[in-house]
Design brief:
- With about 400 residues, this protein is of the alpha/beta class.
- It has 2 domains: about 190 residues, NAD(P)-binding Rossmann-like Domain (Rossmann fold), CATH 3.40.50.720; about 190 residues, Dihydrodipicolinate Reductase, domain 2, CATH 3.30.360.10.
- It has 13 helices and 18 strands.
- The strands form 4 sheets. Strands 3-2-1-4-5-6-17 form a 7-stranded parallel sheet, with helices on both faces. A 7-stranded mixed sheet has the order 10-11-12-7-15-16-18.
- Helix 1 crosses helix 12 and helix 7 crosses helix 13.
C-alpha cells in the first residue's frame, strides 16, 4: 500500500483511545499522517510520545465546540475525521465534516445521537462522502463480527456478549473501570433495545441475567442486558424477523451489587437533601456514587477484553450455528480496551478513506456492520497483533 498517495487523518480528541487509533493508522500503513486536535496541551504531548514515529504526527491545540474555521480547514484536508471525544460533540462534528466533504467516524455511545447522524444520509450522498458513527468494540466490532455468515445463512438469532475486565480482579465486584464511569452507568441503567419475533422491544437495563462458562477466558461469568452495544442491531434485525440481544459480561455477583445500589437510590439523578453533622446538604446521588466508584475502582492498566458473537440460522434448509470468540490483553502502550476499541475504529476510518481496494465504500450514512467486511476486519486486527479471535 506504500504506492498510494499520502493520507492525513484528523483525530479529534488526543486521549488514550485516540492514541490507539493513531497507532494503528501509522504502524499498519506507511503512507499516513495524523493531525491531533485537543484543548489540552498535556494530552497532545502524550499523543505524540505514544507514537513510534512522531515525525508523522502534528498537533493543534484548540476546542472542538463550536467548530471554528481552523478546525473546518483541518477537516477539509483530511482523508477521514475520527471523533474520539465524548458523544455529546459528535453530531456537531459530523455536520461540520459533511459540510467540509470529509468522511467521518466516531466511537459512538448514544443511540439518539447516532440516529441524528444517520439522518444526514442525503447530505452525505450529495457531498460524495461516507460517515460511520458507532465504531469501536461494541457496538462497532462485535456487530461486524456477527455478520460473518450473513451472505450464506438465513439468520434466526444473534446474541452478542462483551466485557472489559481486570486481569487480576479484586473486591466484591471484581471490576476496574476501563472507561468513563458515566458511560458505564448509562449502559447499565438505560433501557435496552432487543428484537424478538420480528418485533423491536424495550427491556430494562441489567435484566435477563445468565451464566456463561465456555468463553475464551476460563471460568464462570455472568451476562446481563445493557444498552451500549446494540447500535442499529436490534432495529435492523427486527426488520428482518431475526432475534437480537446484547449483554455485558462480568464476574458473578457484580450485577447484584449494582442492582442493590440502584434500588436504594444511589444512582438517582435528581438532587435531594441529606443531613450530616446536623447540617442539610443538597446532593445528586448519581454524582456522588459515580465519584466514589471512580476513586475506588481505578484500572491498573492490566485489563482484558472477552467477547462473543453467537449466530443461529439455516443454510439450505439445515440448522446451523456459529460463534466468534475474542480474547485480548493489555500489551505494551495500550490496554485491551484501548486496543479493541481503537484498532477497529481505525480500520473503519481507513476504509472510509479508501485505503482498502477490497472494501469499496459508497457515499451515505451507515453504521459499520452495515457495510464492513468481517473477514477484512479480522485479518487487519490479526495484522495489528489482536490474534485472540476464533471462529467455530
Amino acid at each position: 500500500m506504500s504506492d498510494m498517495p499520502k493520507k492525513r487523518f484528523l483525530i479529534v480528541g488526543a486521549g488514550r483511545q485516540g492514541c490507539a487509533v493513531a497507532a494503528f493508522l501509522l504502524e499498519q500503513f506507511d503512507n499516513t499522517a495524523i493531525d491531533f486536535v485537543d484543548c489540552s496541551a498535556e494530552q497532545l504531548t502524550q499523543a505524540v510520545t505514544l507514537q513510534n514515529d512522531p515525525s508523522r504526527v502534528a498537533v493543534h491545540k484548540m476546542g472542538v465546540s463550536p467548530v471554528d474555521d481552523a478546525l473546518r480547514d483541518l477537516m477539509s484536508r483530511s482523508a477521514c475525521v475520527i471523533s474520539c471525544v465524548p458523544y455529546r460533540f459528535n453530531l456537531e462534528l459530523t455536520q461540520a465534516s459533511v459540510a467540509a466533504k470529509a468522511p467521518f467516524c466516531d466511537l459512538g455511545g448514544n443511540v439518539g445521537t447516532v440516529a441524528a447522524q444517520l439522518e444526514l444520509d442525503a447530505e452525505c450522498k450529495s457531498a460524495g462522502i461516507a460517515i460511520a458513527p458507532d465504531c469501536g468494540l461494541a457496538p462497532g466490532l462485535l456487530n461486524i463480527l456477527a455478520e460473518f455468515w450473513s451472505k450464506d445463512w438465513d439468520y434466526q438469532s444473534v446474541r452478542l456478549y462483551c466485557g472489559g475486565l481486570p486481569q487480576y480482579p479484586t473486591g466484591v465486584m471484581n471490576y476496574a473501570l476501563t472507561f468513563n464511569v458515566c458511560g458505564l452507568l448509562n449502559e447499565y441503567l438505560d433501557d435496552c433495545e432487543v428484537s424478538r419475533g420480528g418485533r423491536l422491544e424495550i427491556i430494562t437495563g441489567m435484566s435477563e441475567p445468565e451464566r456463561l462458562s465456555d468463553l475464551a477466558l476460563p471460568g464462570e461469568f455472568e451476562a446481563f442486558a445493557t444498552s451500549g452495544g446494540t447500535s442499529r442491531g436490534a432495529k435492523d434485525y427486527a426488520a428482518k424477523g431475526i432475534d437480537y440481544i446484547y449483554k455485558t459480561i462480568r464476574h458473578p455477583g457484580h450485577r447484584d451489587v449494582i442492582v442493590a445500589m440502584w434500588e436504594m437510590g444511589f444512582f438517582d439523578t435528581n438532587s435531594s437533601t441529606h443531613v450530616s453533622a446536623n447540617k442539610p446538604h443538597e446532593l445528586v446521588p448519581w454524582d456522588v456514587s459515580g465519584s466514589i466508584m471512580e476513586q475506588n475502582m481505578p484500572s491498573d492498566g492490566h485489563d482484558l477484553v472477552v467477547a462473543r458473537a453467537a449466530v443461529e440460522g439455516t443454510q439450505g434448509g439445515d440448522a446451523v450455528k456459529g460463534e466468534i470468540n475474542l480474547i485480548d490483553y493489555a500489551v505494551d502502550r495500550f490496554t485491551a480496551m484501548e486496543r479493541t476499541t481503537g484498532f477497529p475504529t481505525a480500520i473503519v476510518a481507513a476504509a472510509l478513506a479508501g485505503m482498502y481496494e477490497e472494501q469499496p465504500i459508497e457515499p451515505g450514512a451507515r453504521v459499520p456492520f452495515q457495510f464492513m467486511n468481517p473477514r477484512l476486519v479480522i485479518d487487519e486486527l490479526n495484522r495489528a497483533g489482536i490474534n485472540g479471535i476464533s471462529i467455530r
